[in-house]
Amino acid sequence: MSHSHQQLGYHSQASASAALDPSDTDSMAGYEREGEGETHRPSLTLSRWLLHKRLLSDYATLAVAGAITLVTNFAFKPFERPIDAAVLADVDLRHPLKQNIVPTWALGLTSFAAPLLINAVAQAAIAQSVSAATVFKRTFRFALSLSLTLLLTVITTNMIKKSVGRFRPDFLDRCKWSIVTMACTGDPAVVREGRVSFPSGHSSFAFAGSTLLALWTARMLNLYSRPNGFQGALFVRRRTAQRVSLESGQSENRNHRGDGGAFEDSFSKQPRGLSRAGRFYVLLLSFVPMWAAAYIAITRLQQFVHHPTDVISGALLGACIALVVYSTQFW
């Protein structure tokens, strides 16, 4: 066997391994795309991975975003619109003050804890050919992206809320207007909370988390695959082994075609016009978290704490922020 053939066989094997590298089809393309620790740096332990300088930068960014969230939530007072005769006569502001149908803690569970749990379970269920450390890393990086999505949503929502100062539909019940003092006599904190109707924070927060989860679910279940292109992270586990001939320097791979492996063959063998058939269930599963967010938004109308335009704008705001984060971290 010649020395040149040995070198050629080595490079072919290395190229094949790189092509099958799970990091190339990792669901978090924004991190370490050029080399996952477990593949290119086998000595990199999980603790060292968690303290990688690129992740440290993300930790710092999240910390800054968290600080800005606290500032926008507690340091700034809402813009105080004057209470004149038109406001006092507005029937849309005379609804009774009610208790939250979906409390804040339930909103946190629905928008953060539930997507994170679903992601972790799905990663563990589909990643049969990768290590537990890889599953943890992908879930952890999803958690970072989800945290950034929710923090950006809260910051943007608070800034708009405090700047606009729109009255809630139950403002007059909160205010308890006195014709003697010509001022509100209700609890100042409750009255102040009645001035931040636009946009709906519950709606934006719920749709931010659910939209990110829905997009991720659609990607993991191969919705956006093409017959000759990327097949989704779900099918990474179906990679086939490469057999390299050192004598000829040729690599043989009977099943692997792109990132989809044998599944890509099945797509290419479909009759014309049916390459995307049979995947309606993916759309159905992807819409489940959106339904949960829609219910949360509707409850804000049921208890007369927001106007319809507040809920619609909040939902669009959260969904748009989730789409931006998704496009940079998962696309």
UniProtKB/TrEMBL annotation:
The chain crosses the membrane at residues 56-76, 105-127, 139-160, 280-299, 311-328. GO terms for cellular component: membrane. Residues 142-326 form the Phosphatidic acid phosphatase type 2/haloperoxidase domain. SMART domains: acidPPc. One of its GO terms (molecular function) is phosphatidate phosphatase activity. Its main location: membrane. It is found in: Membrane. The keyword Nucleotide-binding does not apply. InterPro entries: PAP-like, PAP2/HPO, PAP2/HPO_sf. Pfam families: PAP2. Keywords: Membrane, Transmembrane, Transmembrane helix. Residues 1-39, 246-266 are annotated as: Disordered. Residues 1-16 have a biased composition (Polar residues). The keyword Glycosyltransferase does not apply. SUPFAM superfamilies: Acid phosphatase/Vanadium-dependent haloperoxidase. One of its GO terms (biological process) is phospholipid dephosphorylation. It is a multi-pass membrane protein. PANTHER family: LIPID PHOSPHATE PHOSPHATASE, RE23632P. Belongs to the PA-phosphatase related phosphoesterase family. This is Phosphatidic acid phosphatase type 2/haloperoxidase domain-containing protein. It comes from Chytriomyces confervae.
